[in-house]
């Protein structure tokens, strides 16, 4: 497989949002915890911290954009007349276990490298710094090749995060924890991972107003550590969710507010227990403004995990060099 | 372990780190989680070099640091401790290379295994394998002995020892004595042991008057630490003690308080003074040298040599039929001779002005009180009056009761005499001369007869067999030629301001910093062969350093043996001391006058 590394900055043209920002809300049920006309902020209750709280997150980095020659099938001896776009990306997912015994520590992360291509030519790219596994990707005509590749990368990353989350559970048992009260916190929606037990998803940014205007206004009146009652949200998939304000200095109405999700495979009483637990657990990990530009929503363990994962992805400049050397040798 | 060449796992302490440049002379080791490296540990790495074979780079740890990787703010520490922020604790040891064998100066590669050197590897790293004769000087931080090369002590390739440090905590004198003990008892001197002598000037208290007494604090633990160095834990075997005569006493008893027997009184007779032209040592201050009257000093000294006739058997002199039986008499006599018109030209020089003569006389007169006890013409001659290093292995001269001017006189005259004797005898044995407060006798600025003598010893003593062991609080105030001629440089606790001076450039920055908090008994020893000074800990003295530490019980252990002064245990009459009694002062030394 002949390929060329694009001289442009690999991050060029890939900064689009992958999240489904404009979700179509099918239904919202707000009478799960209390009757809709009795909605009021729910204060924090004194609950014990779980023996272990595990945070799972993933990072991705595009190491190079490549152009892969489409061989001329009619005249194989002639030089290629067409080339397809590809992305060589490194991505990784990991977990931090915050437990009473060992403090906050990393669980073994998973790092992958993939060569995402649209054309017919999908082959692993071998470099001295590592192999980029072949990831053939289908083109989504309406969105274009760059979006399709980026989405494919995101899908792979989400899969990896899921694997890590499952692994983390097993590793907890291995180091003497897992007495059943541990909590798994995902950075982002729980979609596709809702079947895991004791899992919460934390959404940091708010694009859609899910609640009716008067209930929506109530979110702005939450005090730190207070939450809204749980409501059921049905878009393309359904989940229980609630808003929680993390401790932060006074600011705009939605400062420090996160939305927390939980799967629908469990009963309502269990969901309410998680909602109460989230008020005890998450504020503890909320970051300070001067330490994190995304404070307080970007939780300390997640920030530390992202830093570690980016480091574990390897040196970008070095990988770029390795890819160019591999391209020259191909 | 797959093959026999692999090191035992417990010796592997980590891997060479690649976060900072690794160089042939300085590299870092990332310490494994279950291992540790402390300052002064000896570390070894090996690297296969094509066409060269295995190159081993060894060094000592000069800095160790630990940090939280993943923390960006100091306050993150609390988050980490609280279990909120994940971080990794990593220790990095900085290793300063001491030896590369074979000589192929390549950097240890990051990721290479680093081992704790022991046994033969440690000896090689610290060049002990190359030393023909090793003198043990203490324990390293790793609990193994540290040596100096005798070749750099005895004058074969270098000589002289310079010990610096703050008074009281640097234990300079204790270290110098321990070095002498090691030289005398480790057998390194071989046949020269019989002819080797040590001359010690004691300027602070009577601490050194008990060198021949075992220390009460000598227990099995201390014995074993001496044994680990291959040395016997015992006091000095053959020691002669000298002290000035008691002022005003006509019987020539030594002026000592704590130790009353076994000490000989020393003085010079006026006849000796005139014959030996010792007058210049009366004017041994640096400021004297800057004055016009030095010409008068030399003139008067040579007239005294020529004109003074011995009178009587007690060392008195007479000049022009006038007798002088005391130093004051002689000063008066010189005064008269210089002011008498008939003799002035002969005694002061023809062109010397009255002002210069008066300045000389003022200075001479001010010496009457300090020098009267030791310049005598009124005491009955005794056999032990003259300071002589030949009778004992160690000779201690107690100067603590003398004023500074008299101390200078004694040091100057004694060293001059010993140098002359050594010059005559040839370089057979060695004479170790231990002098505290060297900055007083050989200051950086100015010149004096004593400084000239010491400079001569520093530069020529090596071939004569005179080895200077100089101690000072501040090496920056000692004549540069003396410090630079010292092969062995030793530093105890240093004043922070002093540690920054260029004289201590041989200490790497971390050791300079450590020297400001070195505990008593800890020294940094620099020797020519080893590029990094080694930190050592030497054992507590096995000999008493004050009266309260003397272990002798009634009826045992005789004291001085050969000079005929004493045969009986001098401490018989003293009450038995409680060994637990930690009375610091012993008997208070008399206040200086």
Structure description:
By secondary structure, chain A is an alpha+beta fold. Chain A has one domain. Chain A has five helices and twelve strands. In chain A, strands 1, 2, 3, 4, 5, 6, 7, 8, 9, 10, 11 and 12 form a twelve-stranded mixed β-sheet that branches. The model of chain A has no long low-confidence stretch (mean pLDDT 87). Chain B is of the alpha/beta class. Chain B folds into three domains: 9-125, Beta Barrel (Elongation Factor Tu (Ef-tu), domain 3); 134-265 and 383-549, 3-Layer(aba) Sandwich (Rossmann fold); 268-376, no CATH class. In chain B, 26% of the residues lie in helices and 22% in strands. Chain B has 17 helices and 23 strands. Chain B has helices at residues 76-81, 120-125, 172-185, 220-228, 270-275, 286-289, 294-307, 327-339, 341-348, 354-365, 368-371, 404-425, 438-441, 449-464, 480-485, 496-499, 509-515, and strands at residues 12-16, 26-31, 42-49, 53-69, 88-101, 113-116, 134-139, 145-149, 159-164, 197-202, 239-243, 263-265, 268-269, 309-311, 316-319, 322-324, 375-376, 394-398, 431-435, 466-472, 486-491, 522-526, 534-537. The relative contact order of chain B is 0.15. Residues 553-593 of chain B have low confidence and may be disordered. Classes of the chains: A alpha+beta (330), B alpha/beta (593). The A-B interface holds A 96, 98-100, 102-106, 284-285, 291, 300-301, 303-305, 307-308 and B 70, 72-73, 75-76, 79-88.
């Amino acid at each position: 497989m002949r390929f060329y590394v694009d001289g442009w900055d690999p991050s060029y043209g890939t900064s689009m949002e992958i999240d489904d920002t404009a979700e179509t809300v099918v239904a919202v049920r707000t009478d799960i915890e209390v009757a809709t006309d009795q909605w009021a902020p729910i204060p924090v209750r004194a609950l014990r911290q779980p023996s272990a709280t595990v945070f799972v997150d993933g990072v991705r980095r595009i190491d190079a954009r490549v152009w892969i020659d489409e061989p001329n099938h009619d005249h194989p001896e002639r030089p290629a007349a067409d080339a397809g776009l590809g992305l060589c990306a490194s991505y990784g997912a990991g977990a931090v276990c915050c437990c009473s015994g060992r403090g906050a520590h990393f669980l073994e992360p998973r790092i992958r490298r993939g060569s995402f291509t649209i054309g017919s030519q999908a082959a692993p790219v071998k470099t001295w710094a590592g192999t980029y596994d072949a990831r053939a990707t289908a083109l989504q005509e309406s969105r274009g090749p760059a979006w399709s590749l980026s989405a494919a990368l995101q899908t792979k990353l989400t899969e990896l995060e899921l694997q890590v989350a499952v692994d983390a559970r097993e590793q907890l048992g291995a180091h003497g924890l897992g007495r059943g009260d541990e909590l798994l916190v995902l950075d982002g929606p729980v979609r596709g991972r809702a079947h895991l037990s004791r899992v919460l998803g934390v959404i940091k940014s708010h694009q859609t107003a899910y609640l009716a205007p008067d209930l929506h206004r109530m979110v702005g009146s939450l005090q730190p550590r207070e939450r809204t009652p749980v409501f059921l949200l049905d878009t393309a998939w359904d989940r229980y969710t609630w808003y929680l304000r993390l401790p932060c200095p006074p600011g705009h109405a939605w400062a420090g507010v996160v939305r927390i999700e939980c799967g629908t495979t469990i009963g309502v009483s269990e969901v309410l227990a998680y909602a109460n637990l989230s008020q005890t657990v998450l504020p503890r990990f909320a970051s300070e403004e001067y330490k994190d530009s995304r404070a307080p929503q970007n939780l300390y363990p997640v920030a530390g995990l992202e830093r570690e994962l980016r480091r574990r992805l390897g040196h970008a400049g070095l990988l770029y060099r390795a890819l160019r050397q591999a391209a020259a040798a191909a | 372990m797959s093959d026999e060449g692999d090191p035992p796992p417990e010796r592997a302490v980590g891997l060479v780190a690649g976060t900072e440049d690794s160089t042939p002379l300085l590299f870092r080791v990332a310490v494994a989680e279950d291992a540790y490296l402390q300052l002064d540990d000896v570390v070894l790495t090996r690297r296969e070099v094509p066409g060269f074979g295995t190159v081993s780079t060894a060094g000592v740890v000069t800095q160790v640091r630990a940090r939280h990787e993943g923390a960006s703010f100091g306050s993150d520490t609390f988050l980490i401790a609280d279990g909120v922020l994940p971080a990794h604790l990593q220790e990095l040891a900085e290793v300063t290379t001491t030896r590369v064998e074979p000589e192929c100066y390549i950097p240890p590669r990051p990721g290479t295994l680093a081992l704790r050197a022991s046994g033969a590897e440690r000896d090689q790293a610290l060049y002990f394998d190359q030393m023909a004769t090793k003198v043990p000087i203490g324990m390293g931080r790793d609990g193994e002995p540290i040596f100096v090369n005798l070749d750099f002590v005895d004058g074969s390739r270098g000589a002289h020892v310079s010990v610096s440090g703050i008074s009281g905590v640097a234990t300079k004198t204790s270290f110098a004595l321990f070095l002498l003990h090691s030289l005398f008892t480790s057998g390194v001197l071989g046949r020269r042991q019989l002819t080797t002598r040590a001359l010690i000037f004691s300027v602070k208290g009577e601490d050194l008057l008990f060198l021949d007494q075992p220390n009460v604090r000598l227990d099995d633990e201390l014995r074993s630490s001496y044994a680990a160095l291959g040395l016997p834990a015992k006091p000095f075997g053959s020691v002669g003690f000298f002290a000035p005569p008691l002022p005003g006493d006509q019987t020539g008893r030594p002026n000592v308080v704590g130790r009353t027997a076994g000490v000989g009184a020393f003085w010079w007779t006026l006849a000796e003074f005139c014959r030996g032209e010792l007058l210049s040592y009366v004017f041994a201050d640096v400021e004297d040298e800057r004055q016009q009257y030095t010409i008068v000093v030399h003139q008067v000294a040579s007239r005294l040599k020529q004109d003074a006739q011995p009178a009587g058997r007690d060392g008195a002199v007479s000049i022009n039929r006038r007798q002088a039986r005391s130093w004051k008499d002689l000063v008066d006599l010189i005064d008269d001779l210089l002011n008498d018109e008939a003799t002035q030209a002969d005694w002061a020089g023809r062109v010397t002005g009255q002002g210069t003569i008066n300045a000389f006389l003022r200075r001479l007169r001010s010496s009457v009180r300090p020098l009267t006890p030791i310049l005598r013409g009124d005491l009955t001659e005794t056999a032990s009056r003259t300071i002589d290093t030949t009778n004992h292995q160690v000779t201690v001269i107690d100067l603590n009761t003398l004023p500074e001017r008299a101390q200078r006189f004694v040091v100057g005259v004694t060293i001059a005499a010993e140098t002359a004797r050594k010059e005559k005898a040839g370089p057979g044995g060695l004479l170790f001369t231990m002098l505290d407060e060297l900055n007083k006798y050989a200051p950086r600025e100015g010149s004096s007869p004593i400084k000239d003598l010491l400079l001569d010893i520093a530069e020529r003593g090596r071939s004569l067999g005179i080895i200077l062991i100089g101690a000072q609080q501040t090496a920056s105030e000692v004549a540069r030629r003396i410090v630079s001629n010292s092969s062995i440089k030793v530093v105890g606790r240093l004043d922070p301001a002093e540690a920054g001076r260029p004289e201590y450039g041989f200490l790497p920055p971390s050791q300079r910093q450590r020297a400001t908090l070195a505990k008593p008994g800890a020294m940094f020893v620099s020797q020519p062969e080893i590029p990094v000074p080694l930190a050592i800990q030497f054992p507590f003295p096995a000999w008493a350093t004050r009266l309260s530490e003397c272990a002798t019980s009634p009826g045992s252990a005789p004291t001085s043996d050969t000079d005929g002064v004493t045969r009986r245990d001098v401490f018989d009459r003293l009450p038995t001391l409680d060994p637990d009694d930690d009375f610091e002062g012993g008997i208070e030394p008399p206040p200086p006058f």
